[in-house]
Amino acid sequence: MIAREVRLVGAPRGLPTVDDFEIVDVDVGEPLEGQAIVRNAFVSVDPFMRMTMSDVHPVLGRPAAEVGRPLSGGAVGQVIASRTAAFAEGDWVVHQAGWREVSCIGGDDDGIRTIDPQLAPVSTSLGVLGMPGLTAWAGLRMFEPQGEGRTVYVSAAAGTVGSLAAQLAARHGCRVLTSAGAPAKRDWLAELGLGPVFDYHDGVREQLHALAPSGVDLYFDNVGGRHLEEVLGALAFRGRVVACGAISVYNDVEASVGPRNLDLLFTKELTIRGVRSRVHRHEYPEFLAEVAPLVADGSVRYEETIVHGLEQAPAAFIGLFAGANLGKMLVALA
């Protein structure tokens, strides 16, 4: 079977360009013992993948992207051939051998899981009910209980992680503040009715001081860099930070020094803790039991930005760093 895959042509320096990628036809072949062949329906493009293309921000436990080799990433598809008892033909699976029209899965790939296509649209298994959703859910659980009257601020809140974190925090009784750069994103956040929404271009620290003069109790950080530095200055005594992502620095040519006000960690007795979905994969059943019904009945809302055709994957990926997505950015293949 001949199918297409996306390969890295050269290691990007700074913001990637479409010339850093190529589309190649390959012969998928037949599955070996213990493997299955999956025809992918959707491929995920995620900001953290930029770190696998550089040694500036390496990702622990994930292989670096190799020049001339297919890129890996999240995908969901249907098994079309199987030589393993783990998957039958017709099963829908999520896996990490994405950026391909057809993937061979199995072996030591610990990111594979079957999904129920009747639970929700299969695309959600890469978004609100997938890795991003699990990340938001697990990150908030790290600092439970939030409690009535607590102020939570979520940056990049129109993305999948941010929007779910904000909605779950509101359901926990928190006062929620959110920010986004594009007017359309702020309009959508306002429709959710969670609380004040602001444009981070107008000054993060100033906006937070005005909206939360007593300080922010919990910051769910999806941006990092200078944004994090400004929020540290607006946190309350014993404020907490869930460090989820740092999209503002992923394209740095050299590692940045970091926030210049880390002295606030001890003067305010702050706590910063990272969250990574990979560590929480075993919690998928509990996460889905709580969140999937909320998605099904509309209590939790989500958005998807979908482009069509594998050839659009590089441009979609690059668009993440310009804020081209509302909600989850996906590439539809079928």
Question: What report would you give on this structure?
Answer:
The chain is globular. It has helices spanning 131-141, 160-171, 183-192, 204-211, 225-232, 264-267, 284-296, 313-319; strands at 2-8, 21-27, 35-44, 75-82, 92-95, 102-106, 113-115, 151-154, 175-179, 197-198, 216-221, 235-243, 271-274, 304-308, 328-332. The two termini are 16 Å apart. With 334 residues, it is of the alpha/beta class. The longest helix has 13 residues, at 284-296. It contains eight helices and 15 strands. 22% of the residues lie in helices and 25% in strands. Helix 5 (225-232) links the parallel strand 11 and strand 12. Strands 3, 4, 5, 6, 7, 14 and 15 form a seven-stranded mixed sheet that branches.
Mean pLDDT: 92
- Low-confidence stretches are none
Give the biggest sheet. 7 strands, mixed
Structural class, by secondary structure, is alpha/beta
| 3D shape | globular
* Through-space gap between termini: 16 Å
Helix count, DSSP H or I runs of 4 or more residues:
8
Give the strand tally.
15
Determine Rg (CA atoms, Å).
Answer: 20 Å
Strand-and-helix sequence, N→C? EEEEEEEHEHEHEHEHEHEHEHE
Fraction of residues in helices? 10-25%
Fraction in beta strands: 25-35%
